[in-house]
Design brief:
Elements lengths: L1 E7 L4 E8 L9 E9 L3 H8 L4 H20 L4 E6 L1 H5 L3 H12 L4 E2 L2 H12 L8 E7 L4 E7 L2 E8 L10 H17 L8 E6 L1 H10 L5 E3 H12 L3 H6 L5 H4 L2 H14 L4 E3 L5 H15 L4
Parallel strand pairs: 1-4, 4-5, 6-9, 9-11
Antiparallel strand pairs: 1-2, 2-3, 6-7, 7-8, 10-11
Helix pairs in contact: 2-4, 5-12, 6-11, 7-11, 8-11
């Protein structure tokens, strides 16, 4: 059995195709058989002009055609396609989704921040232990999702309209950072004097883990600060050619690290677990649970 997940973010669009390895109701596992990412960068235009331009529209249609062919070649049993913050705010988003459906057959669902957090919960919940407290931070191109867990239970969740592309360096940047800090201070009161571990998801924190060459998937604030300082000394050209970062990663990783570090500082959290999972992985679990609910096994 195979599932496919399409995640159309503000910076890149991803296709993940996975096989179900262990068709056990309690201990499901997947094996990735195809992963493709393309730097669409929809947020660059949407967050300035509130619309997706014609070039990006044509690229999206071609990309969905390619994704659809891969889905068909792999004989996928079910697929799920979602779009996040850039599509939420594009005035022509609904029209483009209709066009994509007509030309490619791919049905895209535009999801709100709360739905993003819900899908992420499917995979993040697997990282939690019964007796610890966690602060989950997911930084995307257009939004940042924060979830707080105590003893496996989510006690607070909020999506902020700030990411590695949106509002970076703007006046609104300061306002949103302040609202993040104030919200965190209130929501973390029940966990005062308790140990809290951060969980970081998103392409930029995964790349940071890779750059730091950490094997145990645990980072601390000092490591992240040193990496941020080092990246700030490099030109865009050096990030691409010396560190071999993709161009769309080279200009978003530092803003993303600023958000991760700010939240960790306000929450007084020193360590971050980076499980290298994301929205696409949560979508896989959702499709499996849908399969079970329909009595297929």
């Amino acid at each position: 059995m195979k599932f496919a997940a399409i995640d159309i973010g503000s910076n890149g669009a991803r296709l993940l195709i996975s096989s179900v390895l262990n068709e056990d109701k309690e201990n499901i596992s997947f094996k990735d058989v195809e992963y493709t990412r393309f730097p669409l960068r929809l947020g660059k235009d949407v967050f300035e002009d509130q619309k997706i331009n014609n070039k990006k529209r044509e690229q999206l249609i071609k990309l969905m055609q390619a994704f659809k062919l891969l889905i068909e070649l792999h004989e996928v049993d079910d697929y799920m396609a979602v779009a996040t913050s850039a599509f939420r705010e594009a005035k022509n988003g609904e029209q483009i989704i209709k066009e994509v459906k007509e030309k490619t057959g791919v049905k895209i669902e535009v999801i709100e921040g709360a739905k993003e957090a819900e899908i992420l919960h499917y995979v993040i919940s697997q990282q939690l232990t019964d007796f610890d407290n966690y602060l989950h931070i997911d930084v995307g191109g257009g939004s940042t999702e924060i979830n707080i867990y105590a003893h496996r239970q989510k006690i607070a969740s909020r999506s902020f309209a700030m990411g590695s592309i949106r509002n970076v360096g703007s006046k609104k940047n300061i306002e949103i950072l302040k609202s993040m800090q104030e919200w965190l201070q209130v929501q973390l009161v029940p966990l005062q004097n308790m140990h809290v571990t951060a969980i970081g998801t998103g392409g930029n924190i995964n790349k940071s883990l890779s750059l730091l060459k950490v094997k145990n998937q645990m980072l601390n604030k000092d490591q992240l600060r040193k990496l941020q300082l080092h990246l700030n000394t490099l030109s865009f050209h050096d990030k691409v050619n010396l560190l071999e970062l993709n161009p769309d990663r080279a200009d978003t990783i530092v803003p993303a690290l600023t958000i991760y570090l700010s939240i960790m500082e306000w929450a007084n959290v020193d360590t971050m677990q980076v499980p290298e999972v994301g929205l696409k992985d949560g979508m896989m679990i959702m499709m499996w649970q849908k399969y079970l609910a329909n009595g297929k096994i």
